[in-house]
Design goal:
With 200 residues, this protein is α/β, with parallel strands linked by helices. Helix content is 30%, strand content 20%.
């Protein structure tokens, strides 16, 4: 582990690739921009900041991701039946890396600025509380759920046997916690390229 990773309080980046990509019509993580898969573009953002990372996928994607990116990458399959959506991917990674504070970024957020993430991590490392940290755009009532830091304590407190857990989302999770807010005017970093009409 590098000194920078020690400075960042044991964080692990997650490249979130497990969605169905139904609006795009093809797996977004394996789409390319300037010769690189979108999933790789996000991974490189973590890497340049000295942050270890894994790829979150669903079971049907395993072979295509191994074939595209090799067998030296770490792919974590969704395996949590209680949770839905991105929270399922987040908790599947938490199950294997229960000592890590997790930062998920969707594979289609290729405009996410490393500087924004670096600024968040600086704020986070100066904070001694175990609470999560997330961005909110100015004049918005909603957290930016991707690019947030989900702490070990927050995730370990989720009760897998509780029926109410089935209704949880990343937004509800951050709203239920004493989440530290970072205000931002940066809207481009949080753009999701969901459909062909969104492409450049």
């Amino acid at each position: 582990m590098t000194s920078k990773q020690n400075e960042f309080k044991n964080v692990l980046g997650i490249v979130m690739c497990g969605g169905m990509s139904s609006r795009m019509g093809t797996d977004k993580g394996l789409m390319k921009q300037e010769g690189k898969y979108w999933a790789e573009i996000i991974a490189e953002k973590f890497s340049r900041l000295g942050i270890e990372y894994v790829f979150s996928i669903n079971a049907s994607q395993k072979m295509s991701y191994h074939n595209a990116m090799g067998y030296d990458k770490i792919f974590i399959e969704d395996n949590q039946s209680v949770f839905q959506g991105p929270l399922k991917g987040l908790m599947s990674v938490h199950e294997k890396y229960s000592d890590k504070n997790l930062i998920p970024i969707a594979c289609d957020m290729i405009f996410f600025k490393e500087e924004l993430l670096a600024s968040e991590l600086v704020n986070y490392t100066s904070d001694t509380s175990p609470n999560p940290m997330a961005f909110k755009r100015v004049n918005s009532n909603f957290f930016e759920t991707f690019g947030a830091i989900y702490t070990v304590q927050l995730l370990s407190e989720l009760n897998l046997e509780n029926e109410t857990s089935k209704d949880l989302s990343l937004q509800k999770l951050l709203n239920s916690a004493a989440t530290h807010i970072i205000a931002t005017n940066d809207s481009k970093s949080f753009i999701n390229l969901n459909a062909p009409k969104d492409l450049f």
